[in-house]
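User: Predict FAD dependent oxidoreductase's structure from this.
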Amino acid sequence: MHVRKWFSAAVVPLLLAFAAPAARAATCETSDIVVYGGTPAGLAAAIQAGRMGKSVTVLEPTMHVGGMMGSGLTKADVSVYEDTYGGIARSFFALARAHYDTKSTTRIYYGSGWAEETLRRMTIHAGAKIVLGQPIARAVRSGRSIVRIETTTGRRFCAEVFVEASYEGDLLARAGVPTILGREARATYGEAHAGAQPLGRIEVGNRTVLVDPYVKPGVPSSGLLYGVEPFVARTTGEADDRLMAFNYRLCVTDRAANKVPFRKPAGYDPALYETAARFLQTLIAERGFVTSTHFIGNSVTVEGKLDVNSSRYFSTDVWHIGRDYILADGAGRAAVLARVRNYTEGLFWFASTDPRVPKNVRSYTRRYGWCADEFRDNGNFPRQLYVRQGRRLVGRYVLTENDLMARRSFDDSIGLGYYPMDEHGMYRTVVGGFIADEIRQSLPGGKYEIPYRALLPKIGDSLNLIAATTISASHVAFTSVRVEPTFMVIGQAAGAAAALAKDGRVGAVDMARLMSTLDAAGQIRKKDPTGGRR
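Assistant:
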């Protein structure tokens, strides 16, 4: 090839590719409000602000919006407390009921693809702009205010107000706002259930059972089974950096026309599932049987689909990876995602084919497969890892276990939450030669108020940033806050506040106007002692 032609065909496109981000960086794409994270919270914020006439840009790191509601979590955590949620959340649930002709008043179900598309349309209809594939690289500040977000693609996005709506808390971290990752000590906020919890061996019914944790049973020098960590001495109630187990919420079906059989993943390693095999053996020894539905469950949602979540003893939960995932860079997170996906696909191959699994369980599991009409660009496997908790803001008010248990009333309540404070998958180790798990019972749930101050960094930390997901809450309180309907409530309030913030000062919002705006939008903000609403 002639040198000049070769240069034009090969080198010039590369130079332009490198030059393009630099050229884009010379300008800033400006809107009134930038929301980081196309989660249900982020989209609710964008919808509310857009309806109030503000220009809004939603930056989503991946190529899909909807967060967990668009990625396998297809039953809303609403239950009989559905009237806790008004506004945009209620509108979404109403659309789901109408679309699927669901009569239930205690559960809301929907397909992942439908949820993603519905939330996207609601956002666009409100006038907000969605920009996909924009992981945050840095947040540039001027004094106490964020000026712009720069993404890994080289684009820059400027606004007066920024909303943190990621599950990981990446905007908070890039903006240098104080956060916490892990559990506070009991003494920090005077919470009875804070910090490290007691360890206990596995119980089946009322009996404690012994599950050997070693690769070669009874031989500590052979190493620990997958998912079991070495014992580390600690004091009950002390602070630590542990997070709840992450997993993928799976969508499976037994309808032949829509079923994609479970597949053996590349590099499948049967040894990864020896822990599960030993739990199965133990259950059989204690009970005489294992329920056929153990891996799949029976959580039917819509169109013959099941929402598969974690279960007791062993499951889709992958323990002890949370901190590594949250603190990793893009490549590091991708590696964790690949590892968790490989493990999860392998778990269902194990459950349907391995002779260590009882025949009745294998036969039942093989009845199911991935849903052909979901996640078509991802091998029918969910795209979003269930990040049950990431970084949390340390803000103007920290919502605690005591607030939730006492159903404390706040003058600046922007909405209600509801869900038990459930902690699971924190620490699996060895005590006395057998597997032991951390134990904390789920704490009672009920309607509770969420103060606006819990969405705001301290005045000295940031003036124009609002948290819609990773709010200022203790670990114990956040184990309730973390559900998607509550996130939508917080997101809607964050969007309203962002729209009302003069000169971007979110802490100086006229509270009377914010409350009246939320009331007019159908938000349920207050709970009276008899359980009614106003």
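The radius of gyration is 24 Å.
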